[in-house]
Structure formats: C-alpha cells, structure tokens
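Mods, move this if it's the wrong board.
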Amino acid sequence: MYRHRICDAQGAWIRTFDEVTYELPDTDCYKVLAKDCSENQHFLILGTKTKNPKYAKAVKMFLHTFKIELLPVSEDTVAIARVNGKKVPVTPDEPFRQFINTGVRDVELFRIVTYNQQPIYRVHSELFGVRVSYDGQGIYIQLAPFYRGKVCGLCGDYNFNQFREFIGPDKCLHHNSTTFGNSYVIPSDNCRAPEYRNPCAYNAGEGCTVMRTVTRDRGEGKQREVCFSLTPLPKCSDSCVETRLMSVDMGFHCLPANDATTKHLLQQATIRPLTEFRRKRQYMKATIYFPESCYRP
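Not the wrong board. Structure tokens:
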C-alpha cells in the first residue's frame, strides 16, 4: 500500500509527491503540507519549524475528530506525542492506538508507534490510508493510491505531473514556488503570514507565461526526425522575462521531418500546446530547461 512516492520536508526544503523540490516559506507559522481536498476531507497535515535544535520540526495532524501533535514542548526538551492536547504514552513495546465506533464495532482509526528510546514517531491510519513519519528533523508523508489527484498543499496534488505542481488553495496556478508556498501559510495570533501576489487576482503578469510543446531535431538527411515533447512546458511570451530556469528530463515522440503532418504540427507548436502527444509512445529523452516564472520588466 505504501510503496509509493514520499513527500518529505527537511531543513529549509520540501520535495513533493511528484518529486519537485523547492524552498519552504521562511516563517514560523504552520503550513499546510498535505490535505485531502476531495469532498471526504479525511485528513489535514500541518508542519512548522521550531527553535529546538534537535527537534527542528513539529507536526500537527487532523484525522476524523482527532488532533495529533508530534513536537518538542520547549527549546530544550525531547519530542512528545499528543492527542487532542493530551500527552499519550508511546513505547517500542506499546504503541498508542485510537479506536472509533462505526455503529457496528470498534475499528482502529490510527496508531502511533516508535521504534527505539529516541522520540521517533510514526502515525499510521490504515482506515484513511495515511502514514506520517517524524524524526525531529524531517516530516515524511505517504498516502494510499486512491488519493492521487485529490490532495493539495505544499506536497502537491500527487497526480504524477510536475508541470502544474504549484496549485494554491484557491485552485490558482502559481508560476513560482515563493507565492505558492506562501499561499499555504496559516496565520495565527502569534504568527503573521507573508504577503504575496495571487496570480489569479492580479493582471501584471497576465499573458506572460504560455504552455508550449518543445521540439527537437534528431538524425540527418532522409533520416531526420522532429521530436515533440509528450507534455507542454511553460514558456515566456515575447514581452516578458524569465526569473530563473528549472530543468526536467522530458520524453519525446518523433515523426519524419518531411511528413506533411509533421510540418503542420511544427507550425501549430508555435501557437498552442500539442496535447495530442500526451499519450504517444516515447522515442527519446532529453533534459529541457524552462522558466520557473515570467514577468513584464
């Protein structure tokens, strides 16, 4: 069930389920790492940094009607596990188990386990298909396959597509990791969330970023082919400037260069993304650079 991709937040960085790595928002506020954004809303997982050098991360997790916390309570104490605000006993020999009544029988909602005398915890809900591991320095989240494309947060949407990874809580596509990260920061009385420009609410960058299919030539003479990327990538329009470049290993589908259909597709690639290549067979792979975001100077 859990031999799937992991979202992990370590230090100042996070890697999403779809293996995009970027810098976490630099704030002491809690951030939404992962959330069930389907109508079921089974879980919500929050994370933040602490001032404890040994246990630099803290986790707050909501399952059903329960709040689970894995955190140090001060700058010089070890991490503990709390459920609904109360510390619970967890030892290598005796996990903590929480049951709920379904109306027919009691079933286990989640368990908290530890594997040695150090406070390294794992919260596992077989019922909801969620597993969160915590070692003080990192937070590691795994989800069951039925959550693919149904989650949101800094861990991404878990849909195996890296190119629309930065979807904010309002379903707005962010074109850089900074505004995307800040969109999932949760303000509180003790913590002010960073301000950011919502790309769906401002027109300054409207039309700057377009999605286009990348093309590459392969071979020579009569054997020459034109190869089209299986997935479109962001590109800055003529009046805009890129911020910084990112790279990805991209698959390509190749066609004979002199074929009339190929020539037509080459012309179309300049004005629209060629989504018809999404399910085509991959003939070659190449590293492609694309802009993280674009802006008008």
